[in-house]
Design goal:
With 443 residues, the chain is an alpha+beta fold. Helices cover 35% and strands 23% of the residues.
């Protein structure tokens, strides 16, 4: 593989990072308008047809298109989000919004999730336009708001309210495309499915009293602490879904490794023996996960709290229903189940088929770009905006193309973590990928 850099893609990523479109989940956060202004200015010089959508002040998305010559030919969308999650600078080695390049690495919040792809898609799109690309099928570029908070003001709103503008047969967005070494060559995972979300608020009630007299009181915070402990220790049974099985088979692991990966009784303990990034991901691909992440409660140091609210991130496997997850929650809580009120947002898992022209195009292009490589299907354990398009009838994959310098272990642990960074070679490879796939699929 040729090792290259792409200064234009690197520069655009730096600017997107510096815009600091931090989405904390509130309607007024994000302010993706800043990056829409930047991208419109960048793409506008190519004379492209560009539309803007702003359903909430500051929460803007941008759509650009290169119209195809054949209305019956397929449409491909390159979709990236412009918002990023909050960050605690104390855990970082460098300023998380500097976008500085150090030893060939671009540092900053969003470097891998997913401003790297949002930037490289824009560069590839503009280069295709500048080259006079006249495809049979239409090519779309969508830079979308609010992906990090359920897509309310971004992809979800666009699919619900502007489908005529964003309708597409195929979508490419995050993540995937990192190189997983095997004895016969790299395997490149394609996110053909993703887990669902069942984010839940748990309300724990107690009786108020004076903090100086805690004996035999009904302290909601103490009860909530036990609720958190039980949820954190809950270990539902593993489930080996079709995508996971096809991934393990495609990796060509030694027989004993494949057997451990596919044994519901063994995989949890096996994950504990793996490097932390691979272990976490493998566990999440095969289990419904429960992560208690936010707690609100209490009013004053000397007042025993009578209400505590917990927020639990629950991720569901393909095929699971809300009733199944509610039953799991009751199992986890045990004799406290009736003492906890639960509010949940049920957003089920989605998937796309593998036998598609888009898969074939990705395989052809990556086969040229990465020697001895092959694609393998994979399950995205987080959520992406692909789910909205899949439900509307599109085929959606998560992909990109990363160099061997970006180790899988680093890639897996940087999402929403400290010291997020991406190498400039990966930016160049992804830019080349988008351009080549558009040419291969749309002709």
């Amino acid at each position: 593989m040729t090792r290259v850099e792409d200064p234009e893609a690197t520069d655009l990523l730096q600017q997107l990072i510096r815009n600091a479109c931090v989405n904390d989940g509130t309607p007024a956060s994000g302010q993706e308008l800043r990056s829409v202004d930047l991208l419109q200015q960048y793409l506008g010089t190519a004379g492209l047809d560009v539309q803007r959508f702003e359903p909430q002040p500051g929460r803007a998305s941008l759509l650009a298109r290169i119209e195809g010559s054949d209305p019956t030919a397929p449409t491909l969308m390159l979709m990236g989000h412009t918002d990023v999650v909050p960050v605690n600078p104390d855990g970082w080695s460098r300023d998380p919004f500097s976008g500085e390049v150090v030893d060939g690495m671009v540092w900053g919040r969003g470097a891998v999730d997913m401003l790297n792809l949002t930037a490289t898609q824009a560069v590839a799109f503009r280069r295709l336009a500048d080259s006079g690309f006249t495809p049979r099928g239409t090519l779309l570029y969508l830079a979308v708001a609010d992906e990090e908070a359920l897509g309310t003001w971004g992809a979800r709103w666009l699919v619900d309210h502007e489908w005529d503008a964003v309708a597409t047969d195929y979508v490419l967005t995050e993540s995937g495309g990192f190189q997983m070494p095997t004895p016969t060559g790299p395997r490149l995972p394609v996110m053909v499915a993703e887990k669902g979300t069942f984010w839940s608020k748990l309300h724990v009630h107690g009786t108020p009293g004076h903090g100086s007299q805690p004996f035999r009181t009904d302290n909601a915070l103490v009860t909530a602490a036990e609720v958190v402990r039980r949820i954190a220790e809950y270990a539902p049974a593993a489930q080996m879904g079709e995508v996971w099985r096809r991934f393990v088979e495609g990796m060509g692991y030694p027989a004993e490794v494949s057997e451990a990966f596919l044994d519901p009784a063994a995989i949890r303990d096996f994950c504990a023996t793996l490097p932390v990034g691979l272990g976490r991901l493998s566990h999440a691909c095969t289990h419904t996960t429960f992560s208690p992440n936010v707690i609100h409660g209490g009013t004053k140091t000397n007042v025993i709290p009578d209400h505590v609210e917990l927020e639990v991130d629950i991720r569901t496997l393909p095929g699971q229903t809300g009733d199944e997850i509610r039953a799991m929650l009751r199992e986890a809580l045990g004799d406290l189940a009736d003492a906890v009120e639960v509010e949940s947002n049920d957003d089920p898992s989605t998937a796309s088929p593998i036998d598609t022209p888009l898969w074939d195009a990705l395989q052809t292009v990556t086969g040229r770009m990465v020697a001895d490589s092959a694609l393998v299907p994979f399950l995205m354990v987080g959520g992406t905006d692909n789910r909205f398009f899949r439900r509307a009838g599109s085929v959606g994959y998560g992909f990109g193309l990363f160099s061997q310098r970006l180790k899988f272990e680093d890639y897996a642990t940087m999402f929403h973590g400290n010291d997020e960074r991406v190498d400039v070679e990966s930016l160049a490879l992804s830019t080349q990928l988008w351009q080549a796939v558009a040419e291969e699929l749309l002709g």
